[in-house]
Sequence to fold (110 residues):
Amino acid sequence: MTNYEYMAMGRKLCKADQRSNTVTGLVITTVVLGGYLYLQYRMMQEQNKIIKKQIMDIDQLNEHFKRQSQTINNLTEENRKQRQAIIDLGRTNQVLAKKIKDSNNQKPQA
Fold:
């Protein structure tokens, strides 16, 4: 039988004129409602556990995201420095090439 059937049986017993039926109906209704409330309470506890676990997972993902963002920022900065070093090296090579060319042009030809 379902909870609703038990509740209906309890209501029918309560409507009867006999005092014992009324008490029995009230007891059945109270037991069914108590059981229903207990089941709801247990379901809420389980849902709270699930929610807490999901919040912890979200917090862990946020921390992971922060670490990844920091790593990306560090790599971007390193990349910028390496590009600047390459540009500086290219300028140095151009200056050296010009000096070599100028020194070759200044040598007296024999």
